[in-house]
Every structure is written in structure tokens, then in C-alpha cells.
Amino acid sequence: MLKRLLHSAPRDRWEAIGDRFAHVVGKDGVIRRKEELLTYECDGLASYRQRPALVVLPRSTEEVAAIVRLCQELELPWVARGAGTGLSGGALPVEDGVLLVTARMKQILATDLDNQRAVVQPGVINNWVTQAVSGAGFYYAPDPSSQIVCTIGGNVAENSGGVHCLKYGVTTNHVLGLKVVTATGEILDLGGSVPDMPGYDLTGLFVGSEGTLGVATEITLRILKTPESICVLLADFTSIEAAGAAVAAIVGAGIVPAGMEMMDNLSINAVEDVVGSGCYPRDAGALLLVELDGLELEVAANVERVAGLCRDNGARGIQTAYDAEMRQKLWKGRKAAFAAAGHLSPDYFVQDGVIPRTQLVSVLREIEALSDRYGYRIANVFHAGDGNLHPLILYDNSVEGALETVEELGGEILKLCVRAGGSISGEHGIGADKNCFMPDMFSPIDIATMLAVRQAFDPKGLANPGKLFPTPRTCGEAAIARKNKLSEASVAAVEVDLF
Amino acid sequence: MLKRLLHSAPRDRWEAIGDRFAHVVGKDGVIRRKEELLTYECDGLASYRQRPALVVLPRSTEEVAAIVRLCQELELPWVARGAGTGLSGGALPVEDGVLLVTARMKQILATDLDNQRAVVQPGVINNWVTQAVSGAGFYYAPDPSSQIVCTIGGNVAENSGGVHCLKYGVTTNHVLGLKVVTATGEILDLGGSVPDMPGYDLTGLFVGSEGTLGVATEITLRILKTPESICVLLADFTSIEAAGAAVAAIVGAGIVPAGMEMMDNLSINAVEDVVGSGCYPRDAGALLLVELDGLELEVAANVERVAGLCRDNGARGIQTAYDAEMRQKLWKGRKAAFAAAGHLSPDYFVQDGVIPRTQLVSVLREIEALSDRYGYRIANVFHAGDGNLHPLILYDNSVEGALETVEELGGEILKLCVRAGGSISGEHGIGADKNCFMPDMFSPIDIATMLAVRQAFDPKGLANPGKLFPTPRTCGEAAIARKNKLSEASVAAVEVDLF
Predict the structure, then answer these.
(1) What's the pLDDT score for residue B195?
(2) Same domain for B333 and B408?
(3) pLDDT tens, B49-63?
(4) A225 in contact with B, Cβ within 8 Å
(5) Hey, is the C-beta of A468 within 8 angstroms of any chain B C-beta?
(6) CA R_g for chain A
(7) Nearest CA among A317, A414, A324, A433 for reference residue A367
(8) Domain that holds residue A327
(9) What are A43-54's pLDDT values in tens digits?
(10) Is residue B11 part of a domain?
């Protein structure tokens, strides 16, 4: 019967297919109306859009497995989606495909405070984990900027980072075990509740695989004790060189801040225009925000050391904040930096690349040179401690050809990161956005090996096709295709996830 | 010509094959004489022995690739070996196979102190890395007990831990990148010098794969700043329950010691018999060794807190040591514990399992019950902080049937660990020793997925066959086969790696 369905007229076919999925998840678990499907046509990378044929909303591992097996049977491509806050188009739907949305899988299944574990469904919001355990003095460390909206499932797919990953590591360092449904509909239990299980580390393989191996349906997270004391230190410098030297000195002294962020003059002014907190001196060449946590006396000692190292490297002024409200005030500008960029120009393009920390100053100078050459202003806001850059290219999308030029400039920045010994993505993932840059970083045999591993989980290539790995299309062709589809991407839609 | 070689008489055949390998690595790079091959017939798990047909000693990635491609062409199984200190038979040769020994790949290729990286060949001894960078105030954290002998390549294969993995993590947390030769002879560059590269985490997949995916030929390690201050605290308790409660209290207070070890009364007395330092009270039910590191005032504060928590939980006496010599004195007994067990009885069998830390006391009681039931004494020495148990079963191998019974008892302990939510190996690996227990921990589909991943690297299954994954042979059959091959395994040969 199904083979027949596939050959019937498109609308009838999808009606019949929808009924099959409704049989699994209930009528209210399938979205088929065109206007409702519009909500799902893009994620945080709003410049790529594609309406899915069908959205399916499972509640359990078993329902996910049944959905995936049905996709396998009908040979339908499918894409998993959490909150859709990703910035690389990882949750971009596939034409004539199914979008599996985890919005109804929002249960925290268990917490074990003694062993510092929590088991959650993929649709659980990142921030909820901390909320569930903070009363007892615990928290979940990875904190992407979108943490009040984004889901743990999405964090697992993208191996999300955040401000605190300098000290605490990214998502993969906090996932101990996974129940996953592979693209063939098999249910696997990877890892467990104790770390470093024997056998291949398939948990680590799965985290960051961007939905190309399957879907995680239960995630065992490590939770940490809330530190006794936290201090945020803001230091302002007359130049990026001086701030970069301070970063080098702090790391060189063996201090591991919880986070260490840098903003350049353009970002500082953008932020002050919008937030107007008065905390950030408008004439500074760069500022550093350093968060230190630990025992009270350890934090106090480290604050002294960091302040001394900043002064040694030319800091003009240093502010410190211990209480939560004051800390938030110092962080506020940094957190608003991307949104503020939207006020500097009609549109902006955010890049995400990594360089070895020691190359910071020289790479920033090269970015400056690229900015001059292309004639677009670039604001720099980034995780200085781990060399994760987020250059914001300011432009006006209504100008013919501007987006294409800006994308080219963004690509030049990525290639610069690779040449400096770094990487084409720090925390936003590859998705549909950067797969054409994968060959700049990986040899054909490296990529072939990844694809061979993929085969083990997804022989038919139905799970999130066209993402992560380069497709035969060149970057140029992809850009043209995208341009033709580009609808009115609003900056607002993206802002929620930017940090 | 080669096909002909394979069908000629065995000795001639291996002579001709040896010449082929000599063509790659030079005449002095091939060992073929029976008496010289004897050295390589076992690793630290001396109860499994098998002489290889040939030992080959490459010097470079290219030579490794040429060796592996030759094995592929001749369809020869091959096994990689570092120092051979492993305790699970991971480097046990294969009959009619090649042993690829990394003893001539001992170069530290680069150190980059600013970015805290070192790039080494696989034959580099673990301890050399620290020696190379300690003058500048750095060290390499993973410290298996065999660190003055074992190689980084072996550490990568086994994902080795050590006393300090409680705070600093195991090998996989310190490997950023790998150049590997896959079983098909391809050279891959996995990861890099910046952490969390995009694409599948094949670096993480490779670490701990026990030589079944290929050989690492260049390893990029993360090196850490030497802590400002280190203190070792020894607390003695009248019971295991009390010591276990102290462990729970320390972890519960959010303190993360660099290491936290426990020894029971039998181990304490064994150690005092041999080392006689007088530091360990013979009438203690259990003792804890807690190492704390960090800033001077942070360590001082944490020593106070840990001492207080130990006293609250019934510690009778507490000793602390800050200077290196005194610290070594307190550690000495712990480090000699396994060797000392050899003085309590003619032979001993060391088990390696993991349990959730909160199950410590109840599992130790169950081990005690098993000891009574089987009539063998069991000494317990273990990494209490992360629940990694090392029960030492004392026996006399000259008694008919003793080894078989002890192996059965060891298996019961592993099953107990799995039932408690733990794992069949903490840090010694699966190898040839525990592969028959894999089905106790992984479902058939979990194992099938690992094997499918293996296919991507080693379609012919030539790299370290018979290890890690269960073979059609049942445990019982394997034990019989092993018994028939068992030669005079000396305790001394094993002691070097025990901790």
C-alpha cells in the first residue's frame, strides 16, 4: 500500500503519510497545515529556509523509534529539531521530508544529587536543568547564550559551548550517557552513569554529530556543585594588543577563569548605545570580562592576581563585582552585544571560528585588514580565553550583492582561522552553513572516514541529509540557490540565540 | 609472488615475509628469532601468552603505514604494542601475526608552552612528557602507576587513568589531536591543536579503542600548569563504612581532590609488612589518602575542610604532608600495595571495575560476602573518589583449579559492579581478558553498532583481532584454552604496572 502512496499525487500522498505518523503519535502530534508548517521553515540561521512536508511530535523513545522506522520504510529524509535556536542551519528542514520536533519531550526523568547526575528528555530547556537542582546547590555548566530557550537535545547535537566552557568544557564533557534512536530505528544505550565506560566512546561520537547519526531521546548529564563564590572583573585597555597581552599573562600564570571575554571598541560603543549602563568606557580600545569562581578565599586571591596582571599590561581601570546583581550588570553589555550590533547597521552576519589563543592579536589585525579591504565594519566580541572568535560583519541587506560579499568576507575569516591552526566552528556547528568549508579543514580521507562511520548508523543517509558534510554543490552554487529562496529574514528572529 | 609465499612452508613463508618488512624498516627493525620473540609473548596480563610470528619496529608514520598496508596485502593479523604494561592482554600477539612495536618511535616532536601542547610519538614514555616541560612549570596529568615505563601510545589505546584522574580526567581528556594509521593503511589527522573541532569526534572514538581501529603515530597532548601547592592528607578510620562516609562528605561538600584513595585493613597490613613506613596504622579498618592541589591558600583551606569532614566521620588520626619527600612517604604504601599483595600469598588476581561512588560501602560488603563464599581473601585498594575498585584476590596457583575458581570469583565481582550501575573496567581495558563480559554490559545492538564502526576503519578485521569484542567462544572455553597455554606466569612481571 505504501509503495502505492508514494506514487500517488503529492498532496494525497502526504495526507496518507501523515495518517501513518498520526497512528504513532496521535492526531495532535502531526502538523500538516501549510501555514502552521511555516513556523518550522528555518532555525536561528534565518537566511536558509525550507518548509518541511510534515512535522511530527513524539513523546517517548518508542514513538521516536516508530517515526524513524516509518521514515526508513518510506525512504523519507528527516531532520530532528529542538528549539530551533541553532545558528548553522542544523535544523533546516529537507524538502519532501519530515521534521521530528522534540517539543513534547520535556521531562526531567531523574536527578541523583549524590552522584551528581540528571537524566532528561531532549526537549528539556537547558536552563531548566539548573533550575531543577539549584535549590540543592547544584547547576548544569554548559551555558549557551540561548540557554533560556534552547534544548538539551539541540545542545547534544551541536556540542554547545558557552561563556563558562573555558573552565568547564563544552556539552560533550557533561554528557555521560545517551539513549539514542539511530537512523535505522534501533534503540542504543551509549555510555552510562559512570564515566569512561569501556568499548568505543560512541557517546562522544554522537555528541556534536549534528543529527546525522540519529536522535538522543534520553540524556544523562553531569551536574556540578555551585561554587562558593563568584566574582566578575572588568578591565579596560587602550588597545586590543594590551588586552590580548593580559589574556596571555592570566593563562600563563596558571589561572583558569570560569570565563574570559573580550570586546573591541566598536562593540563597546554599540553596547553603550543600547544598554547605556555606563560600565563600559567608550574610549577603551578593548575590554576584558573575567569571571572567577571557587572558594571564597581562592576567588579573592585570584581576583587580586588577575587585577595585577591586567594593570601590568596597561589596564586603565578595573571594576569587580561579587554580588549577583552587580555581576549581571557587568555582564549585561556583553550579553547584549550581538543585539546591539543590529542597531549599528540594518543587518549583521555573525561568524564563529577558533584560533590558538596565542594568535589572538595577529588574527584580529588580519580581520581588521579584511574589514578595510572589503569595506565592511566588523565588531569583535569573543571568548578570548579559548580563542573562539565571533566577528560581527555589519551590512545592509537591501543593497544588491551585499550579502554575497559579506558571506565571502566571512569565508575569508574562516580560512584565516584554519591557516592560524584553528577551526571553522567554535560552538555554532557546521550544519547547512559551513559544510562547504569542511574541505578547508579536513582531507578527503578524513571526511571519507567520517562518512564511513555515518554508514554504521544511517546506511540510507536519511538523517539530516545535506548537513555537516560537503555536498557536490560548491559554495558558490549553494549561495545562489539560497539567495533565490531568501525570504525576509528578520534580525529579531536570530537575536535570541546570539551571545 | 606473495600469494605464492603464503602457500609455501611456514618457516620459509615467514622468512620471505620478514624480508618484505625489512625492506620497509631495515634489517634491524625486524625480529624473527624464536628466542627474541619470547620477550613479546605477553603483556602485563601474563596469564595469556602467544608468541608472534614476527616483530616489526617502525620509526615513522610512513613506516607504520607501509607495515599496515603490507599486512593488509598479505592478510596478516597484527597487533600494536607500546611498553607492554597493560593489564588486560590488549597487546597479546596473535598466532601467525605481526607485532608492531613502537619502541623506536620515542621522539617528543614539539612542545608549545604558550598554548600548553606537546606533540609526541607513540613510543614516548608517559613520564618523559612531564620531564620535558616541568622545568617551565608544566606537567602531563594522566598518571597510570606504570608511568615510568608505559608509553603514550599505549595510554591512548587503553584510555589510561591514574590517581589524579579524579580531578583531571583520563587520557581522552588530554588528547587534542591524533595522526593515525588506520587498519587499511590510510593516514588520518583527527582533531587538532584546538579543542572541540567540528565533525565527528573521531579523536575521542580512537582513544580507548584498544588497537582495533589502527595505530596512533603522532599524539597532540594538553599539558597543564604545575599547581602552586600540593598536600597529601592521610586519615585512618575504624571501619570501611566510616571511611566511605567521609568520602561521601568530601564530595558532597563540593571539594574535588586531585586524588582520593582508600585501602582496607588487609592491604594496610600487607603494605606495612613490606614497606614498614609506620605511617599506616595496622589496626585501622580503612584509611584514606586525599591529595589536594591548587593555590597555597586554597589548598590550606581545603585541607582544613577535608580534615574536619574526616573527623566528623570518625577519623582517629590525621597526618598531612606538604613537602615532596613527606608526600612521597605517605603515598609509598599505596603505591606498593599491589606488590605487597604478592607477599601475602603466592599469587594474586587483580580485578578492575567501577561502581557509582555512592554504592561504595554496600558493594565492598558484597565483595566481602563473595570472599567468604569462595574462601579466598580479598584485599581492597582503590580510587574511592571515582568508584574505581581494584579488589586483589589472593590465591595459590599451584593448587589445582585455584585460578579457575579465582577467575570465576573475579567475574562475579564484575557482574556485581554492572548490577550496581557501574562498569566492567575502570582503567585497565577489556583486551583479551574481559571481552566475554561485554555482553553483561552492552546489548547485542550496542555491540553490533561498535562493530559496524570498526568496519569503517578495519573492514578485514586485521587490527588486534579477538580483543575488546566478545568472540564466539564462551568465557568457559576461553578459560580452558588459556589454561592449556598457561606457562609460568611470574608475579614479578606484572608488578611493575600495578597501582
Answers:
(1) 83
(2) no
(3) 999 999 999 999 999
(4) yes
(5) yes
(6) 23
(7) A414
(8) 229-338
(9) 999 889 999 999
(10) no
